[in-house]
Amino acid sequence: YGREYVFFRKAPESGVQVNGIFAGGPTIGLLVPYYIVYDYSANSGPRPGGQTDYRTEQYDPVKHDSNERIRGNAGFLSGFGQTNFNLGVHAKGGLSFEYGRYREDVTGVEVGFLLEAYPKKMELVPRANNTSLFSSVYLILYYGRRK
User: Fold this and answer.
1) What is the pTM of this model?
2) pLDDT in tens, the chain (147 residues)
3) Which residues pair with 84 in a beta bridge?
């Protein structure tokens, strides 16, 4: 649900219109497990031809206790099949600046602040101080025509 308030109306032929935008509603948080490439070569003993034993696994701070053996992340799409959905709420407030002719072109900038809250903590990074409240600042540039 949202509202847009006109603070300053632009002149009929040109000028700048300033709007205030306030909105809120439900939001969906997607939690995808973090996968890494871990080196098990030292555990499996000498291998023929100096082969390495790298495995892609979901990160577990207990199992993967040696940071030196982590060879990197497993890729952007790894773990998407195990995505957890978390429902929450969001609120946003911003200012919109529109320029251009009154009934034809519209060009503008919107800047604002967004706040999201979830009922339980979202574990984004293991061993870190995770939270259930997230804030962000946004910038939207738009250009178009009105009918």
Assistant:
1) 0.66
2) 999 999 988 876 777 889 999 999 999 988 888 787 877 776 655 556 567 777 778 777 777 777 667 777 777 777 777 888 889 999 999 999 988 765 667 789 999 999 999 998 887 767 778 888 999 999 999 888 767
3) 31
Half-sphere exposure of 146 (CA within 13 A, CB side): 11
Residue 142's closest CA among 111, 115, 114, 113?
A: 111
Reading the block at residue 10, the tokens are 């632009």
Q: Per DSSP, what are the bridge partners of residue 61?
A: none
Name residue 74's amino acid: A
Q: Which of 30, 60, 27 is nearest to 122 (CA)?
A: 30
Question: How far is 106 from 142, CA to CA, in rounded Å?
Answer: 8
H or E element that contains 109: strand 105-117
Handedness of CA 29, 62, 57, 76 (dihedral sign): positive
SS3 69: helix
State the CB neighbour count (10 A cutoff) for residue 38: 21
Helices and strands (DSSP H and E) totals, the chain: 0, 8
Cβ atoms of residues 18 and 97 within 8 Å: yes
